[in-house]
Amino acid sequence: MQAPLRIALLVDPLTLKRMHTNHAPRLARELLGRGHTVRGFWAPPGTIPRAASEPTVDGGTAPEDGPGLAGFKPDVIVAYDALSPAAWLGTWKGKRLETPLVLVEEGVSPASPFPLGILSRLGELLWGSYVRKNAAVVAALDPVARDQALAEGFAPRRVHLIRTGVDLEVFRPGLSSHLVSRHGIRGRILLHVGPLRERRGLDTLIQAFARTVGQRGDWSLVLAGEGPGRRRLRALVERLGIAGRVYWIGKPREEELPGLMGSSTLYAAPALGSEERGGAVRRALACGLPVLASDLPRLSYLMENDVCGLLAPPGDTEAWEGILVRAAGSPMARRRWAHGAREVAQARFDWEAVAGHFEGLLHGALEAAAAEKSGQVSTSDG
What is the reported pTM? Predict the structure, then answer.
């Protein structure tokens, strides 16, 4: 059994705010459960859990100064986003403390919307090469994040795919939702959860629904979210004559999601690009909800075609019509996909397993750092 580690977790507030996966707090909780000592730096107080025996004087909304992180004496530093201020701070502190740095990359490119794209370009200009030179490992959360890390110049041997987990006790099959009765939703439900905006592929979904199961009285399309595209999408629904089959229920609360997914028949993720990170897809799979998704790297990484649902080319209305007709017309296939969805979630998204893989990555970074230091010492002695 490997020795427990002292792990410093660096997450700047902007990164934490936009991380839909809630990765840092949950990872910290799992690592604590595995016997490690974890302390968060730079995140708002109370965001990163710590052991009850750990003091609570650190943290705050400003970066920790030298005595804070140095006094903690971490074995390894984990920082989020390769081009973020947290990555720069982790690199600088790691160099001073001779502590290996592990970066967690979720994939935010310089082409991302304001202000993320601007901050990414600024990070590349100010400290990108410094971080690349000194980071021990990059843990990429999906294929898009991996490709971004490689495009940013990180050595392929240092970039590893590490999945994101789902709470399989909260998101599980067999749940029901009061939202269905509250909104008067009837029949089988085709569900989409997320912002109503460009690049989500909702035009494709609505048109495919209107031409297929939306013509029947036993199916409803439920759009759970808000966003700037709502007015335009409502106009499209009216124009297609399916207003009575489409329900706009707003953004559900976090605790309402498991029941809403448990009450649905199919989940749809018709994204056009990498803006869709797949958080709702992971949760749907955990609930045993079959998924119809665009065949994009982030989504096909989460599921297998005809095992827990179906994949279709993004933006291809005719292809989406085809998978909707196939899914709606085969209750036996839906039952098989539902079983496969839960099995995939248990095999891939269990947080305990995810934390175990991450733990192995941390120990690997330490071993590599020790070997490199030993080699340097032997060279200088010789």
Answer: 0.90
